[in-house]
Write a structure and sequence with these properties.
Elements (H helix, E strand, L loop, with lengths): L10 E8 L3 E8 L3 E7 L4 E6 L5 E6 L4 E7 L5 E6 L5 E6 L2 E6 L5 E6 L11 E6 L6 E5 L9 E5 L8 E5 L4 E8 L5 E7 L2
Antiparallel strand pairs: 1-2, 3-4, 4-5, 5-6, 7-8, 8-9, 9-10, 11-12, 12-13, 13-14, 15-16
Amino acid sequence: VGELLGNSTSRTDVYQYSTNTGLTSCNLPNGGGEGIVVDPTKNIAYIATCCNQGQIRIYDIVSGTFQTPIDVPGEDLLDVTISKDYAFLYVTTYNKVYKISTASKSISGSFSKTSLVNNTAKDFWGVTVHPTNGNIYVSSNWQLGSGTSTIEYFSSSMSGSSTRIATAPTGYNYRGIIFDNSGNLWAVASSSG
């Protein structure tokens, strides 16, 4: 899921929709959210905060309570995804992708934007995990006019360099990305026109 609320530190409400129970919500006081992912085996939602809060908020869906958040260094968190085995979160900031253990709730690795093929990229945005091989896919340069926008992938070991798979058409910038159940990669491309 992409941005939950614009650049606001007021409040974000996150809603769970169910055909059986209707609408359930949780409130993020003092801050907006940029992305959310759910671990269905634990009924836990992980919410990437915006506005320089630098936290992954952890929401227990069953008890309706927040757990102790995970602190992430740097600037805004832009997106969050989870590994197929639910053992790791991958979180994008402007400058890095962080790998976070869901068991220890600590950072276990990072990948810098300078390791991208598009190594002059101003920032990251979207992040998703390939459903079969576990590679990490990211979009870069989400802001219009910030340079060439690409989609690239790298190993979940967070080492080595990336492989570029797509460059946005002139006038477009990639933002959110996700794989569907068939393994097709989908991307949002934004344009100023």
